[in-house]
Structure formats: C-alpha cells, structure tokens
C-alpha cells in the first residue's frame, strides 16, 4: 500500500520552524510521506505566522495557494488563534488549530487522511534527531513554549499562553541526539530563554544519570558539555544571567547573547512593559564584558513606538553609541491587531518613524563597521555554511554570527574539493565591510 502524502508549508520565526519540525517528525513516525509539491499531496498543512500584519498577509496567501492547488488544507500556528479571519477568507479550510498544537494537527490529519495501518514506527526510518528543516550542521533547540510577560506591543502570550518549560532531561536528550546526528551548532530558542524553568520552580530532573535543575544556568552548563557551539537567543538582562558569562569566558558556550532590548529610554521601556526594564543595561553590559571580553551582543530595536519623543530617540542613539552592540536590527513600530499598545496615545507619524529608522541604522552601521574593522588581523574558528557556487569561497560564520540574522565570514581562495558545509576552519581576518568579514584559510 502506498503511504499517504502530506504537503507542508512552514512560515514564521525559528520557534514556528521547530513546531513544523515536530509535526513533520510525527508524520514520518506514523508512516506519512512528506510531499514535494501540493499536487502530489493528499492534504496540506500550513504552519502560519500571525505576528505582524505582513506575516498575517503572507500566511493568508499561503493558505489560499494551498487551497487552489490542493484543496485539502489544515491550518496551524500563530494565526490559528484568529480562526474567524482565516475562515472569512478561506471558508473551505478543513481545520484550524493554534500554535504548538501538535496533537490537534495530528488528530486532524488522521481524520482526513488516515495513516497506513501496518505502519511500525520502530522499524521505519525516522532519524533519532527527528526531521529538521535547517541544514545538517545547525539546529534550533526550543526549550519552552509561551511567555509570562505582557509587553504591550506583543500578542504572543495571547497566542501561545504562559511560559511552559520543557523538562531539562528531555531538552538534553534532544540536544544529544542532534550532536550524535552531526549537528555542530545548537541555537537555543524560546520567547524568554533566561526565564527557563521558573514555571516549574526549577524542578529537578535527570540526564545521563546526572541530577539537573530545570534552570537557565544548569541548562547552559549541561549543553556546554556536548562539545559543539551553543548559541543563546532571546535572553533578558536579569541578574541571574551574569553567571552564564563565566561559562562563555571559559569556552563552554559561545560568547554570544541575543537580547531583544527593543529600546533604551526608561520611559518607553515602561510603556512597552518590557521584562527587566528597570535594569541599568549599560552597567550590565559593562559587567558582562569585564567577565567575558569577547562577548558579542546582538539585539533588535523598535523606533516610533507610541509616545516616543525626539528626546527618547536621542536617548536611544546615545545608549547605542555607548553600548556598541555588535549586531543590531531595527523596525519601525507597526500596530499588531489585539495588542494593548494600540490604545496608547501620541502615535508617531510615519515619516518621523522612517527618519528615526534611518538615523538609527546609520549609527548602528558606524558601530558595526568599526567593530568589524578591529577584527582585521585576528585569527578565529569559523563554521562553514555553504560553498560559493562560482568562486573559490566558503561562506562561513564566526561565534559572533547567528545564521540568517547576522553577518558572514567569507573565506577566500580555498580549494573547494577539501571543504564542506558543516566544517570548522581556522582563519585569519583580512578585510571587513559594514556587516561581513573576509578571511584567508590558516588550517582546516
Ligand atoms: S517577552 Fe514580551 S515580546 Fe517577548 S514574547 Fe513575551 S510578551 Fe512578547
């Protein structure tokens, strides 16, 4: 009997990507095949994103395309919260479920396309690390769902609920399986990585016979034993983060922190209801750098939040000049349906938002250019993502660069027959521009 085939569309952030990977793993475990096109599929699952208006539109378009080309569509993911909106545009969708609703998605798939009866999940080939949508050498590791904060511009807690941390034993088992499968870099993700375990009251668990607490520090220390790059995303500057800097200094995990500061003006941070908004972040960054001088910090910011004055914005620019963050992204504020910030007064006109965005990016570029220029002549290890199809160049990343969001290190004049994606190279930096580095190979 032929295996039923399910088509899959995965949209949104790395957290949604991990949800897709879990659903795909379960589908394969139960004997479904993943179809390469809509036409060959018995049904299509669309994992949507509902974060900002453009993502909502992209999700609705993807659902429409799947309906036109296949007809049988199950919708899941963040936009699933707004079933009425989906059904008003696409009344024929078979089922709508919310984010991280793996069981609901599987039940719906079973309802419309039953799994092959004789399937034995212990015989069929699902790799122990599950199905991954990332390249073979790096993988996202999601440690929790939901969030206990209530930032006024965000609807994630409405979509995904309060924080639910996975037991540390299960997170570590997954991390170990990834390493066994050849993953060289683990990217830890969640909505608030530094809050890991708070909801479980740091419950004690076991991994490989070791007692471990379901706690941020313990997780970082345990991941640091695996011998691969470990990169932390979505960390907030809480006091308990300081101890993790020592693990970075000692080379256990990468000296890299992705901290979504969003703003610097205390008044705006308060209006945003940001976690740890009363921390003195400049002092904190200074302290972290004194513990771990190589620390690379990446962050994102929002300009033009309701109520942001020119003074608040100047405060942000001054803060940025002093903080000298390695990597920054910036967005102009746009309202998200259902977010409490929509009720705030003093909206910033679009042209001012745009002007602030451009001024912010100029400062950010100056800082990045200087930081990267200072790396010329230094030697470091980089991880190869891919080989340039035309030139003798390996496209790689250093500890300071997360995939997709940060820069690259282009290793030039290499012998492509000797180098593969996923390989670590030791290089010397020879040149830099605003975002990327260029290097020569020292050793493989
Ligand atoms: S920390 Fe704030 S922005 Fe992040 S998911 Fe939680 S509520 Fe949303």
TrEMBL record:
<dbReference type="Pfam" id="PF18693">
    <property type="entry name" value="TRAM_2"/>
</dbReference>
<keyword id="KW-0963">Cytoplasm</keyword>
<dbReference type="GO" id="GO:0046872">
    <property type="term" value="F:metal ion binding"/>
</dbReference>
<keyword id="KW-0808">Transferase</keyword>
<dbReference type="InterPro" id="IPR013848">
    <property type="entry name" value="Methylthiotransferase_N"/>
</dbReference>
<dbReference type="GO" id="GO:0035599">
    <property type="term" value="F:aspartic acid methylthiotransferase activity"/>
</dbReference>
<feature type="binding site">
    <location>
        <position position="49"/>
    </location>
    <ligand>
        <name>[4Fe-4S] cluster 1</name>
    </ligand>
</feature>
<feature type="domain" description="Radical SAM core">
    <location>
        <begin position="133"/>
        <end position="370"/>
    </location>
</feature>
<keyword id="KW-0408">Iron</keyword>
<dbReference type="InterPro" id="IPR058240">
    <property type="entry name" value="rSAM_sf"/>
</dbReference>
<dbReference type="InterPro" id="IPR002792">
    <property type="entry name" value="TRAM_dom"/>
</dbReference>
<dbReference type="InterPro" id="IPR012340">
    <property type="entry name" value="NA-bd_OB-fold"/>
</dbReference>
<comment type="function">
    <text>Catalyzes the methylthiolation of an aspartic acid residue of ribosomal protein uS12.</text>
</comment>
<feature type="binding site">
    <location>
        <position position="147"/>
    </location>
    <ligand>
        <name>[4Fe-4S] cluster 2</name>
    </ligand>
</feature>
<keyword id="KW-0004">4Fe-4S</keyword>
<protein>
    <recommendedName>
        <fullName>Ribosomal protein uS12 methylthiotransferase RimO</fullName>
        <ecNumber>2.8.4.4</ecNumber>
    </recommendedName>
</protein>
<comment type="similarity">
    <text>Belongs to the methylthiotransferase family. RimO subfamily.</text>
</comment>
<dbReference type="InterPro" id="IPR038135">
    <property type="entry name" value="Methylthiotransferase_N_sf"/>
</dbReference>
<feature type="domain" description="TRAM">
    <location>
        <begin position="373"/>
        <end position="443"/>
    </location>
</feature>
<dbReference type="InterPro" id="IPR005840">
    <property type="entry name" value="Ribosomal_uS12_MeSTrfase_RimO"/>
</dbReference>
<feature type="binding site">
    <location>
        <position position="151"/>
    </location>
    <ligand>
        <name>[4Fe-4S] cluster 2</name>
    </ligand>
</feature>
<keyword id="KW-0949">S-adenosyl-L-methionine</keyword>
<dbReference type="GO" id="GO:0006400">
    <property type="term" value="P:tRNA modification"/>
</dbReference>
<dbReference type="Pfam" id="PF04055">
    <property type="entry name" value="Radical_SAM"/>
</dbReference>
<dbReference type="InterPro" id="IPR006638">
    <property type="entry name" value="Elp3/MiaA/NifB-like_rSAM"/>
</dbReference>
<keyword id="KW-0687">Ribonucleoprotein</keyword>
<feature type="domain" description="MTTase N-terminal">
    <location>
        <begin position="4"/>
        <end position="114"/>
    </location>
</feature>
<keyword id="KW-0479">Metal-binding</keyword>
<dbReference type="InterPro" id="IPR007197">
    <property type="entry name" value="rSAM"/>
</dbReference>
<dbReference type="InterPro" id="IPR005839">
    <property type="entry name" value="Methylthiotransferase"/>
</dbReference>
<keyword id="KW-0411">Iron-sulfur</keyword>
<dbReference type="GO" id="GO:0005829">
    <property type="term" value="C:cytosol"/>
</dbReference>
<dbReference type="GO" id="GO:0051539">
    <property type="term" value="F:4 iron, 4 sulfur cluster binding"/>
</dbReference>
<dbReference type="InterPro" id="IPR020612">
    <property type="entry name" value="Methylthiotransferase_CS"/>
</dbReference>
<feature type="binding site">
    <location>
        <position position="13"/>
    </location>
    <ligand>
        <name>[4Fe-4S] cluster 1</name>
    </ligand>
</feature>
<dbReference type="InterPro" id="IPR023404">
    <property type="entry name" value="rSAM_horseshoe"/>
</dbReference>
<dbReference type="Pfam" id="PF00919">
    <property type="entry name" value="UPF0004"/>
</dbReference>
<feature type="binding site">
    <location>
        <position position="78"/>
    </location>
    <ligand>
        <name>[4Fe-4S] cluster 1</name>
    </ligand>
</feature>
<dbReference type="GO" id="GO:0005840">
    <property type="term" value="C:ribosome"/>
</dbReference>
<keyword id="KW-0689">Ribosomal protein</keyword>
<dbReference type="GO" id="GO:0103039">
    <property type="term" value="F:protein methylthiotransferase activity"/>
</dbReference>
<feature type="binding site">
    <location>
        <position position="154"/>
    </location>
    <ligand>
        <name>[4Fe-4S] cluster 2</name>
    </ligand>
</feature>
């Amino acid at each position: 009997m032929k295996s039923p085939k399910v088509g899959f569309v995965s949209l949104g952030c790395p957290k949604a990507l991990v949800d897709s990977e879990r659903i795909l793993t379960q589908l394969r475990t139960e004997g479904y095949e993943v179809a390469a096109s809509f036409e060959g599929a018995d049904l299509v699952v669309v994992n949507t994103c509902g974060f900002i208006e453009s993502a909502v539109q992209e999700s609705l378009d993807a659902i429409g395309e799947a309906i036109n080309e296949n007809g049988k569509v199950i919708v899941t993911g963040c936009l699933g919260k707004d079933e009425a909106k989906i059904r008003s545009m696409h009344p024929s969708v078979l089922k709508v479920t919310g984010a991280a609703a793996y069981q609901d998605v599987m039940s719906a798939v079973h309802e419309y396309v039953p799994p092959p009866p004789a399937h034995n999940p212990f015989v069929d080939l699902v790799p122990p690390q599950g199905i991954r949508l990332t390249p073979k050498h790096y993988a996202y590791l999601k440690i929790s769902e939901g969030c206990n904060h209530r930032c006024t511009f965000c609807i994630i807690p409405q979509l995904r609920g309060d924080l639910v941390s996975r037991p540390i034993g299960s997170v570590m088992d997954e991390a170990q399986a990834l390493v066994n499968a050849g993953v060289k870099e683990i990217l830890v993700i969640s909505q608030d990585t530094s809050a890991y375990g708070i909801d479980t009251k740091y419950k004690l668990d076991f991994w490989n016979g070791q007692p471990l607490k379901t706690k941020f520090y313990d997780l970082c220390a345990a991941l640091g034993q695996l011998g691969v790059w470990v990169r932390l995303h979505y960390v907030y500057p809480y006091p308990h983060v300081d101890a993790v800097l020592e693990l970075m200094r000692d080379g256990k995990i990468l000296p890299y922190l992705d901290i979504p500061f969003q703003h610097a003006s205390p008044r705006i941070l308060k209006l945003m209801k940001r976690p740890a908004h009363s921390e003195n972040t400049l002092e904190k960054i200074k302290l972290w750098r004194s513990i771990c001088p190589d620390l690379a910090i990446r962050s994102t910011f929002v300009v033009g939040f309701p109520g942001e004055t020119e003074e608040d914005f100047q405060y942000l620019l001054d803060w940025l000049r002093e903080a000298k963050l390695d990597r920054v992204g910036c967005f102009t504020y746009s309202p998200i349906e259902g977010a409490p910030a929509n009720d705030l007064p003093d909206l910033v006109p679009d042209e001012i938002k745009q002007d602030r965005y451009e001024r912010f990016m100029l400062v950010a570029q100056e800082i990045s250019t200087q930081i990267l220029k200072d790396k010329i002549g230094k030697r470091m290890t980089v991880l190869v993502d891919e080989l340039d199809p035309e030139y003798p160049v390996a496209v790689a990343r250093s500890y300071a660069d997360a995939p997709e969001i940060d820069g690259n290190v282009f290793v030039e004049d290499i012998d492509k027959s000797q180098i593969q994606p996923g390989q670590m190279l030791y290089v010397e930096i020879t040149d830099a521009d605003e975002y990327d580095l260029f290097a020569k190979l020292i050793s493989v």
